[in-house]
Specification:
Layout (H helix, E strand, L loop, with lengths): L1 H17 L8 E2 L1 E7 L2 E2 L2 E8 L8 E6 L2 E4 L5 E2 L1 E20 L4 E10 L12 E4 L9 E2 L10
Parallel strand pairs: 2-11
Antiparallel strand pairs: 1-7, 2-3, 2-6, 4-5, 4-8, 8-9, 8-10
């Protein structure tokens, strides 16, 4: 009985550790550029949120030097997504802020692009298909800032 209980507990633990993965969902690595007024955005975030009949997790990529790449879990789930973009440019000044660990001098940044693109009300939409190359460029200075996949 003790052996059976040990096996059951170990099996349950393995089940918990494995979680609810997304291995079965078709996805694609997505990459691209984020620019504002013809120049690469210094920092930021691009988030693909499944909408309509697309199911799966949201996918996030960090923007560095105007480029981003989303490849975790195989990339972005195929289908239709709302795209949320936060763009930040450095001002060239240092200010007191949190560097992730402590108070320190950090680069001052300012948001660029229309603020509605950064959240749930973003009008940006991307339909990611299996036959696309995965490139999705975004120009935050245009009324319709996407380049499409």
């Amino acid at each position: 009985m003790r052996i059976l209980m040990t096996v059951l507990i170990a099996s349950f633990g393995c089940l918990l550790l494995s979680g609810c993965g997304d291995e079965g969902l078709p996805s694609k690595v997505v990459h691209g550029t984020v620019s504002f007024e013809g120049k690469p955005v210094d920092l930021g975030r691009v988030r693909f949120v499944p909408i309509e009949d697309t199911s799966g997790p949201a996918s996030v990529g960090q923007v560095t030097g105007g480029k981003y790449r989303i490849d975790a879990r195989g990339g972005v789930v195929l289908g239709k997504h709302r795209v949320e973009v936060e763009g930040l440019n450095k001002t060239g000044r240092q200010v007191l802020g949190n560097n992730g660990f402590e108070e320190a001098m950090v680069d001052e940044t300012v948001s660029v692009g229309p603020p509605q693109y950064a959240g749930r009300k973003s009008p940006l939409v991307c339909e990611l298909r299996a036959d696309s190359d995965g490139q999705f460029d975004i120009d935050l200075s245009k009324p319709n800032p996407t380049g499409g996949p």
